[in-house]
């Protein structure tokens, strides 16, 4: 079960806050780093996605993953690195990493700007804005790496009073899915009482006249007024 970044912001009706951007950035960079440890250029399918608001998935665990499914109807050109649009050849995993870094940076700018009036500037701190600008450099060799992004996130966490990154991602997921632990509502006092007094009452036995249960009836009336 997961939620796309686009779905979370659609429910909210507003942009990502700065600490949420740092959190999604950190969790996304960690996922990318782990991905590049496991794959190679010989496995293009594992690297063929484009990070966008619809393909960046927020998980209930607080982590982030990516997909290329169910986004064919979206225009991804704004999130696609220039070298991909120009059909340049990719010769190393580092090149592919920089493609995803570009897409992630543009995705987070999209999140920061979501439903913000054009007359209002995007509110980002200088440090965060500098990192995002470095991620969205047009020239591939000038773009920052995943390692640089993770170092910047670590420095931010050390120097601020922010909560752990995964907690912000969990909160975004709950905007859409709600509290998964609260799917089943707590029973009311009345239902608890009925379950105790009448644990295996059949429909026929419910037709017994009220005088047969004077104590039960009195207690039920009292409880109805109490709740």
Automatic annotation (TrEMBL):
Transmembrane segments annotated in the record for this chain: none
Keyword hit for Repeat: yes
Record InterPro entries: KIND_dom (IPR011019), NonRcpt_TyrProt_Phosphatase (IPR052074), PAZ_dom_sf (IPR036085)
Keywords in alphabetical order: Repeat
Position of the signal peptide: none
Claim: Repeat is one of the keywords in the record: yes
Domain KIND: 3-190
One Gene Ontology MF term: phosphatidylinositol 3-kinase regulatory subunit binding
Domain of life: Eukaryota
Protein name in the entry: Protein tyrosine phosphatase non-receptor type 13
Taxonomic source organism: Pan paniscus (Pygmy chimpanzee)
């Amino acid at each position: 079960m997961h939620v796309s970044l686009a779905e979370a912001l659609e429910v909210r009706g507003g942009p990502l806050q700065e600490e949420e951007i740092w959190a999604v950035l950190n969790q996304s960079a960690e996922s990318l780093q782990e991905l590049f440890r496991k794959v190679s250029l010989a496995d293009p399918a594992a690297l063929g996605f484009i990070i966008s608001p619809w393909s960046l998935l927020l998980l209930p665990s607080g982590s982030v993953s990516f997909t290329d499914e169910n986004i064919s109807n979206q225009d991804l050109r704004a999130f696609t690195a220039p070298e991909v649009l120009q059909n340049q050849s990719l010769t190393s995993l580092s090149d592919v990493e920089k493609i995803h870094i570009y897409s992630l940076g543009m995705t987070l700018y999209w999140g920061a700007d979501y439903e913000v009036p054009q007359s209002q500037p995007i509110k980002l701190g200088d440090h965060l804005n500098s990192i995002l600008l470095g991620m969205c450099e047009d020239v591939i060799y000038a773009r920052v790496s995943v390692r640089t992004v993770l170092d910047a996130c670590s420095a931010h966490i050390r120097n601020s009073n922010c909560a752990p990154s995964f907690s912000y991602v969990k909160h975004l997921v709950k905007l859409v899915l709600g509290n998964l632990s609260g799917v089943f509502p707590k029973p009311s006092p009345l239902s608890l009482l009925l379950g105790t007094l009448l644990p295996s009452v059949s429909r026929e036995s419910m037709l017994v006249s009220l005088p047969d249960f004077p104590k039960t009836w009195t207690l039920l009336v009292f409880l109805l007024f109490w709740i």
